[in-house]
Every structure is written in structure tokens, then in C-alpha cells.
């Protein structure tokens, strides 16, 4: 595919260069400027087709990883919160109480 594009662009550039210029007496060196501009455009087209033809490395998408758990041994008592049920004289209620082992 790239070779076809390069050949087509080269043929177009050569045919454009083969066309005769205008017969104006004031325009000296206009064909040189057009040739330079055409050469730069042709070089950009060919260079971009060559640069885009190479395989690219695509980095995989980032994946979420939960942080590692860190266990710390404490020397003091281990405390936890328990839910206790008690009667307040009218109804059963619940409260949270901290219990240390």
C-alpha cells in the first residue's frame, strides 16, 4: 500500500515538474521556488508514510491493584466494639460497648 502511494505521489510530482512555466518576463526563478516547495511537500508525504508504516509498541492499560495489607502487632490489649441489648424499663434497646481482651 505504501509503495503505491509513494509511486503515485512521485508520478504526480514529475508530471507537475514537466509542465512548462508561464511566459512572464517579470517572474525569474519562480520555477525554482515552485520546485523547492513541491520537493518539501513530496518529502513530507513520503516521510510520513514511511514513519507510519513501522509497528508501534502500545503500553497496556493500567490495572487497579488494591494496596497490600500491613499487619501490626500491638503489645497492648486488643479491643473491639460489641453491640449489647439491654432493658431500660420500657423497651429493649441496643448500645455499642468497647470490650478489651
Question: Features of this protein?
Answer:
101 residues, alpha+beta, 2 strands
Describe the structure.
- The protein has 101 residues and is α+β, with helices and mostly antiparallel strands.
- The chain has a domain at 2-51.
- It contains two helices and two strands, in the order ααββ.
- The protein has helices at residues 2-18, 30-51, and strands spanning 79-87, 92-100.
- The protein starts with a helix and ends with a strand.
The share of residues in extended strands comes to: 15-25%
Cα distance, first to last residue?
77 Å
Which structural category fits the helices and strands? alpha+beta
Radius of gyration: 41 Å
Taking the sheet with the most strands, its summary is: 2 strands, antiparallel
Q: What oligomeric state do these chains adopt?
A: single chain
Work out the helicity level: 25-40%
Q: Give the beta-strand count.
A: 2
Number of helices: 2
Name the strands of the widest sheet in spatial order.
1-2
Uncertain spans: none
What general outline do the C-alpha atoms trace?
A: rod-shaped
Helices and strands, in N-to-C order? HHEE
Let me know the average pLDDT.
Answer: 78
Amino acid at each position: 500500500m505504501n509503495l503505491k502511494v509513494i509511486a503515485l505521489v512521485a508520478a504526480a510530482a514529475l508530471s507537475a515538474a514537466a509542465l512548462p512555466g508561464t511566459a512572464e518576463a517579470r517572474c525569474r526563478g519562480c520555477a525554482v521556488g515552485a520546485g523547492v516547495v513541491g520537493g518539501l511537500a513530496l518529502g513530507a508525504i513520503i516521510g510520513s508514510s514511511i514513519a507510519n508504516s513501522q509497528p508501534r509498541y502500545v503500553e497496556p492499560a493500567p490495572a487497579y491493584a488494591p494496596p497490600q495489607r500491613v499487619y501490626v502487632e500491638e503489645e497492648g490489649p486488643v479491643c473491639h466494639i460489641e453491640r449489647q441489648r439491654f432493658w431500660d424499663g420500657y423497651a429493649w434497646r441496643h448500645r455499642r460497648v468497647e470490650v478489651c481482651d
